[in-house]
Amino acid sequence: MSVALISAVHPYPTDCGKKVVLAGFIEYFASRYGPRNVHYVRVGGAGPADFPVELHVVPAPSRPDVLSAIATKVSTGRASLQEAFLSSPRTAGSIASVLAGIAPSLQVYDTVRTAQYAGNDVAAHQICYLDDLFSDRYDHMLKAARRYRDIDISPLGNFAEHIPSWLRPVAENRLGQSGLLRLERALVRRSENRTARRFRRCLLVNAGEAAALTGRTGVSPARIMSVPPLVSAPPAPIRRYSGKPEFVFLGLLSLPHNDDGLRWFLGSVWPTLLSRLPNARLRVIGREARPGILELAKLLGPSVSIDGYVADLGDALEGAAALVNPLRFGSGVKLKVIDALGRHLPVVSTAVGAEGIASGPGTGVLVADEPDGLVALLCSLTDPTRNAEVSRDAAEHFRTTYARAAVFERYDTAFGSP
Fold it and tell me: What is the mean pLDDT of the chain?
């Protein structure tokens, strides 16, 4: 049994959700079939010497290729922008040549961008990993832009890898951002629907999005499935919670949904919590904080610290009362929530922040959308007895859904041999 994964993303280091999922697929296939029988076909970039499976690098599209694809495919509605940015006859020929040499039993294409390189006869027997429904993601961003006029919806936070440098100025103003998102929302929705109908099976991380794609395409539910990401938890997570009102926010702060959620939390939730717990502390862990966050943190004094990147999260999280995830918009499963569950750390989140993850009593993920509700949940978790109870719920949630054995069992079903 040999397997080929075709992607334009280098999965290491696993510093974002997309890479975590791809690295998990590699680990799963290498465990099941042996590293020498697993082939990663990457479009563009250089190949590191220490890649864990067989790596094949094929040339990325040239600028003339991209321009041609935009003119002939995007303008006619036959492809999304992200497909056009990866469209090239030379790339197609190179991928076909590599696959002919490998003759893999199973081929896994990473999103609609590489799915375009599988002909209908191939797709009918193979798998496409769709990641999230990008059409829904762009819809959420557009709705958030209308509702929250102060947010920056720049696609460059969520869309940068799809946009060539020469097109970026278009995406750096409000009109250009909205126009690109509206166009891509419509185009990629067609591509998602087309891909779901062409491939033997399509995989998404979010079960709700899998159901939505099934509903809008009429494809059998057996052909559209959700799979959990493989998130590595510490071998023996340690909880040392003593009752201190200390909380943690974790995430790349340049992403619009993280920036907006944290600014809202600091402005609308944290002052109320301080009035009830004057010695409360919030530790913000994440790179690329924007000026607005830094100014808010300064106004709030020592109760909030902006710590930037932290290599070892163990010390920061094992003594915290909870991870705070107060997002107001966004889509897809937030891997930091799963990581917190793996560390037996209670999570307090908005419904958007917990999307795609079971939440509520018994899950370790407590949800509220209004400031007063979030404050009540955070205060309740400063009671060591209550915190220990929710911590146990988090540990069990991770064990049954996201631990290696549970994830591999789901992958066995999803990647069943053709």
Answer: 89
